[in-house]
Structure prediction request, 304 residues.
Amino acid sequence: MDCILHHFDISPFAEKVRLGFGLKGLAWQSVQIPVVMPKPDLTALTGGYRKTPVLQIGADIYCDTQRIAVELEQRYPARTLFPQGSKGLCLALANWSDAAFFQPGAGLSMGTNSDLPGEILKDRREFFSFLDFASLPSELPHLYAGFSAQVQVLETMLADGRDYLLGAQPSWADILGYFPVWMCRGNIRGGDALLARFSRVLAWEPRVAGFGHGERRELDAEAALSIAREQQSVAEVLVLEEATPGLTAGMQVAVTPEDYGAVPVAGELVRLTPQDIAVRRTDPRAGEVVVHFPRSGYRVEKTS
Prediction:
């Protein structure tokens, strides 16, 4: 069953998954979604989750790049994302790259591009709740310093001459370190100059870009919705009380990101483990789907 990625090409987080496809040598289908809300076709699948990207495999919908990476590894173990038992380390590094590294980069992307279209600025003001847009111009020196400090972390990891962040083999860790650098090149004014002094990062950067994006084919949103309607989820029902006491399979719950873009997704609880969450929901256009999230970084609450 084909992987279908709902994304837009300038999304840094979508670049993570595209590189994951490349590292694994996978064929996949691309559904282009709007850069700003509303996103009615995507909402039919997810129930409101508004972050990018979303991976669809049949009637299973995977949200958050951390959850997507784990699913790709489980379904397609060849050319691993987690060599030499590095899965735990890579998942821990995701918290670093998504917060300490990406967030100052997002501030720089907004603060150094004041001529962005009004609808993008309005959407991102609502979405990036970790940014104070009123004080953004005066915060730029601090954001440059914070972002540069994280590039220095990459430089330090590469200081012994290794080819990749964890050693001789490429991994998901390289993709986690690379995507803010990719964003810096494309979205931050002065980004090339910021990166120029990091010689080891500059040597490593094309190695990661060389993963490529796998074999991409375009697909329209209606076709993706039709695929969801025609398939059945393969999710196994498993709710462990120790993951969140008081919740049981079949309960109506809401799942909400804890950082930003905090739009709840409501549905029937299917999975709740220390690793993942999944809810079943029905939509007139998508049919019955199961929407998956990582456990870390998400709040699960009973709604009825």
Summary: The chain has two domains: 3-79+216-302, 87-208. The longest strand covers residues 265-272. Residues 87-208 form a domain with the Glutathione S-transferase Yfyf (Class Pi); Chain A, domain 2 fold (CATH 1.20.1050.10).
